[in-house]
Amino acid sequence: MVAKIGKGNNLFGTLIYNNQKVENDVAKIIHSNNVMQDKQGEYNMLLCNQSFAPFLAATRKTEEPVLHISLNPHPDDVLTDEQLIDIADEYMQKMGFGEQPYIVFKHEDLERKHIHIVSVNVDETGKKIDDYLDYVRSKKITEEQDFSRSGKLPN
């Protein structure tokens, strides 16, 4: 499994990028954590954006509070949506973002299916969540989640 962690300051742009993939039928939303849905249980980017608003409004010092994480399983790993959800939740928990609002998009625009996770790296008080050595921690987590090498798939 390979992870790419992007940081920025344009939450709405990141949500729109992923939602355009959904509208073009090459992606779908498979999961979220602490993100609002409409009365029909559907996601729209306005409500999604509002779910993150209190976190972003509370921060003034963090220059790049938006996280855009791409998790790419090995091409040999054929994973169900449920397995991808488990991977996303475990990854976010181990990275220290498990209680944050986040939304998981499954992208199918490439031969290998992969997921994008959109979140924020500040808590509800505006304090930056510790991301010291996050690339090292991420590498360790993804190596643990490398199912093609370990021979085991998540529950």
What does this structure look like?
By secondary structure, this protein is of the alpha+beta class. It has one domain: BirA Bifunctional Protein, domain 2 (2-Layer Sandwich). Helices cover 37% and strands 22% of the residues. It has helices at residues 11-23, 45-58, 81-95, 134-144, 147-150; strands at 2-8, 27-33, 66-72, 102-107, 114-120. The chain has a five-stranded antiparallel sheet with strand order 1-3-5-4-2, with helices on both faces. Helix 1 runs antiparallel to helix 2 (45-58). The longest helix is centred in the middle third of the chain and has 15 residues, at 81-95. The two termini are 17 Å apart. The model has no long low-confidence stretch (mean pLDDT 91).
List the SSEs and their pairings.
Blueprint: E1 2-8, H1 11-23, E2 27-33, H2 45-58, E3 66-72, H3 81-95, E4 102-107, E5 114-120, H4 134-144, H5 147-150
Antiparallel strand pairs: 1-3, 2-4, 3-5, 4-5
Helix pairs in contact: 1-2
Summarize this entry quickly.
The protein has helices spanning 11-23, 45-58, 81-95, 134-144, 147-150, and strands at residues 2-8, 27-33, 66-72, 102-107, 114-120.
